[in-house]
Amino acid sequence: MTAFPDFRSPRWAALSALLTTGVLLTACGSGAGGSGDDSGKPTSGGTLTFAVGSDAGCVDPQQVGSNESIYSVRQIVDSLTDQDPETGKIVPWLAKSWDINSDATQFTFHLRPGVTFSDGSKLTSQVVKDNFDAVPQLGALGTLAQGYLSSVKSTVAVDPLTVKVTFKEPNAQFLQATSTHSLGIESSASVQKTPQQKCSDGVVGTGPFVLKQYVQNQSITLAKRTGYDWGSSLWTKKGEAYLDKLVFKVVPEPGVRAGSLQSGQVDAISSVGKANEAALKGGQVTLLRRANPGVVFGLGINNSRPVLKDVKVRQAILAAVDRKQIADTVFPTGTQPATSVLAHTTPDYTDLSADLAFDAAKAKSLLDDAGWKAGSDGIRAKGGKKLSLVISWFPNAATNQPALELVQQQLKAVGIDVTLKQNQVSQFATTLQGGDFDLVWGNVTRADPDILRSSFSSKLANFYRLPASSLDTALSGQAATTDTAKRKQLVDEAQKLIVQNAYNVPVVELQTQLAVTKRVHGLAFDSGSRIQLHDTWIG
């Protein structure tokens, strides 16, 4: 008998965020320009052709976790709120205002009137209720949305334009969750489809663009939504988008994407690697970069392993990693070494760079204190057993293997023998759930510090097997308070506890790097280091 996981569990909220999925098949693209005036003022019209590296095999925003697919499907749906990428502040979008009770268990949203879906149906509180009620049934691909609503008690349509969401326990993170693509609002007709139908056929949203065609592993084509007039309060342009059409071509090879951009076949490309930077710099190409918010790329430690239960061993690993060398050698220009368990683009981030300084001598001293003595081969041993660890990794980014080979060398230099174990992407969730790992390489993107609770609370997912401690109190506390100063203090405490106890080994901040031709204007990152194309135009 096969046991299936409960995908409504908070455990699964963080799992899919660590994955970048997609089948890599070659495709080619061609760009078409819009009209521009010589004054540099924004003009309407034209097609933006964007080459991405992969296709997640799904065009439902509520089920997609891969950045390469989020770029396109995000344009189809609007969210109740939006988040300022500079300040982290939550601002109006489909909801013109909201009320939160004192213990953050009840959220009441007041919807904008006059909003319609592209099938002509109206946005009402009942539609929002239908969306939230259906999220638990999304299945394996809907884990992000399910996590945001994991402790929901009820969603009630108070009146046609007022919806009230009540949770069983304090849930301060939910307001930010309503700004994500994962809780983008879809029409009632779309909600009634099966998750599989939504993935293959797409959904109807209120967004500035409409899905016109999806050819799996080849392309996604969107068209401008006529009459659109309810954009985010962060957007510059009012009303409809500038561009008439968006075409996302799947081009797996980084070099081919770069060549297509240089030749004018496409207007923008994703996932620009270090090897292609030199060829793209200057000329008619602009490189755009932003660190992904959330838990940085690093080593998740199985804290229940006998060797790794010793805090001195974990701290030795933390001190032995030369983050700057890894960032400078392997990753795209501008990639920052980790200075906390959170990236600096995450609200309430704390700079802990002093605690993450590279210090091989300190690492050796800690291992000496823990009783691990160097043998003739340089590898340490204790009680006749060598200090050997396995790092599990998943081939979802070209930088993974070279980064880990450097980590392997750095740990060997202080006497730790490391084996790198490559797994299939499909094995990621079961590996974490089963606990059959020493260390695992990954990150989690989210523009809210509650991602720490999803990842490190012993009361929730706890796939890193942390013991119950004061960390739980800090993580639960920050989720329960609406006092911004108090929340910041608790998030600060949580970051320090994670780093100083070496429950995790932060390495580098994952950076999203795009390249666009200089005829593309107004393409900017949102709070999650993804893109919103309503304000984008071609000149």
Automatic annotation (TrEMBL):
Q: Which UniProt keywords apply?
A: Signal, Transport
Q: Does the keyword Electron transport apply?
A: no
BP GO annotations: peptide transport
Q: Where in the cell is it found?
A: Cell envelope
Question: Where does the signal sequence lie?
Answer: 1-32
Task: Give GO MF terms, alphabetically.
Answer: peptide transmembrane transporter activity
Q: Which domain of life is it from?
A: Bacteria
Q: Which residues form the Solute-binding protein family domain?
A: 89-450
The record, for Gene3D superfamilies, names:
Dipeptide-binding Protein, Domain 3 (3.10.105.10), Periplasmic binding protein-like II (3.40.190.10)
Q: Name one GO cellular component term.
A: ATP-binding cassette (ABC) transporter complex
Q: Which family does it belong to?
A: Belongs to the bacterial solute-binding protein 5 family.
How is this protein named in the record?
ABC transporter substrate-binding protein
